[in-house]
Amino acid sequence: MSQGDKQQAQECVQTSQPWNNPDAVPFIRFEHVTKKFGDFFAVDDVSLDIYRHELFALLGGSGCGKTTLLRMLAGFEEPSDGKIYIDGADMSGVPAYERPTNMMFQSYALFPHMSVEQNVAFGLHQDGLPKSEIRDRVEEMLNLVQMGKFAKRKPHQLSGGQKQRVALARSLVKQPKVLLLDEPLGALDKKLREQTQFELVNIQEKVGTTFVMVTHDQEEAMTMASRIAVMNEGVIKQTGTPFELYEYPNSRFTANFVGQVNLLEGILVDDNEKYAIIHSEAAGGDIYIDHAVSGHEGMTFWVALRPERIRLSDSQPAETKYNCLPGKVEEIGYLGGLSTYHVRLDSGTRIKISEPNSTRHIEPRYTWEDRVWVSWEAGAATVLSQ
Amino acid sequence: MSGTAPTPKQRFDRWMVRNGRYLVIGIPFFWLMLFFLVPFLIVLKISFATAEYAQPPYSALFQWVDQGINIALNFGNYLFLLSDSLYVTAYLNSIRIAAISTVITLLIGYPMAYYIARSSGTVRSVLLMLVILPFWTSFLIRVYAWIGILDREGLINAALLGLGIISEPLIMRQTEFAVYIGIVYTYLPFMILPLYSTLEKMDGSLVEAALDLGCRPWKAFARVTLPLSLPGILAGSLLVFIPAVGEFVIPELLGGPNTLMIGRTLWDEFFANRDWPIASSVAIAMLLFLVVPIMWFQNLQGSEKGDGK
Lengths: 386, 309
Ligand SMILES: Nc1ncnc2c1ncn2[C@@H]1O[C@H](COP(=O)(O)OP(=O)(O)OP(=O)(O)O)[C@@H](O)[C@H]1O
Ligand SMILES: [Mg+2]
Fold this sequence. Notes:
The complex is a heterodimer of chains A (386) and B (309). Chain A is of the alpha+beta class.
């Protein structure tokens, strides 16, 4: 690779991944934001940077404070502590109607007494734009979300998916600097959901607005978002790209929340520059890790293994001494594209394994009570200290 | 089991599924017919009779004459209502007083209902209790209490005189002002309750959406909250306006000799003049006056259902 190519690649990373560029200025900034309801911390000391043109997802279980965080950004709640900046401006005390944000509500909150058209035009009327411009922009926006045909309908005459499009159009038509989406696809069925996820991403690329989206569906966050913040009990546990969160979770919570995982608890017994050994009662032996682990010997660690990174075989693989554990098949699940196996190791731990069904087997490869060996490559495991 | 004829029980059940609701609706319908329509028809009948010194004090409408029915309809009572300016004035007065009172109750009741709907659980139930509390004492006694407050020697005058703010007692009782106080005071709960129930049901995120789209709070109220509470405003207004038009006790006890309202006229015709036919025609005319706004309201509600929520 020549010097010029390298530089170009570097620049590409800096524009498409501003979070990896130390010079990039965040567009939205949460600084130690806390929100208390009484003495309950709904959001607890959150610091977060979101960059321009991102589709950023807040991911977490019910009641973890996602909506509260979003509502503070929109101006419906004031932080009890800390500051929020949008495009460099401090938002403390700025009311919702003066913020450069628009929100798409979880319940859509369409005005029932106005037609689709009037709903979309509502925000433009507040800005006092000329009538002809309002008409053009409303029409353009309704066409973008493919609702042009329904302009004269009232919200109660629309299906759930159509309401959702109108809500999106209404929040986008003012061309906000930031669009906030609270579980935008929560009310849709799986098929429509997947279709709409792509549409939303397309629209986001077309209009270039910064999207901040709340969801409790990790698959949705993974398919749509440029980056994800995983929240739990008011705290952000980890922020990163879908790839980073899946491959390099920093805690058992994230590993569990993003995708499926097997966790094997053990004690670090040998730590070198090139490899580490973790002795695990749960695995019934030593686990070999192909990189150094930052910790001292005797410390407790968890080895995280994704189900699809584990191999099953009916005889002991010849080549390895480590990372090969005997067990018995306890359960089989056929999911069409995948088959899942639950294997009870001789140590008593249960392991989830998934295998793609790349050919059409007449019979499953393994059946109940089969004696099997579970193995993985040393590089497949992630070591977690918390 | 296809092919076999339905048993009587099955046939009865199917009939019930198809027609059962008419049975359920039919009972209250019959009840209303019996206790609302029949008295109304009697009054209607009397309004077409002529007054007589007899028992009952009016002429018979239908008479058997030579094996046929002789119907004597007397429109004179209605013509008399039109010709005597007393009645026309009383009608117009009633409507004016009722309309102004309705507007005042709305202006007072709306903020109260709004506040109650927005307050949290326990506060809300206490406030609602307080709104309903006056119903637990007799209406008559509460109006009498207002006499004590507004009288020449009443509470207000005593207080103002005592503080030296006025030197002569204010004349408040036996004025139209006192009638307004009485009506607004009495009917306020009827305004607050329907308003409260519409405001309470309203989705709070609608106002947030309006704010989010750039509305200032007052404008969000005018463009979203107010139009959406229109059904409550109409229901409350009718619940105040209709009984206020025919109100008798309040103008009698608090009003002066020249606060002419139709309820008082009615009373006088029945009990002082004992002219039942005239009194009946006054009542029927008043009913017609009130039926028009009710029909209008029903129409509005109907069309609201058609294209609204
Ligand atoms: N106005 C409020 N008063 C008191 N507590 C509140 C209020 N709003 C939210 N909370 C609490 O704060 C916590 C976080 O709420 P939030 O709505 O942010 O959750 P969420 O992450 O959006 O959950 P979900 O996925 O269920 O929507 C919850 O425990 C909730 O009970
Ligand atoms: Mg939420």
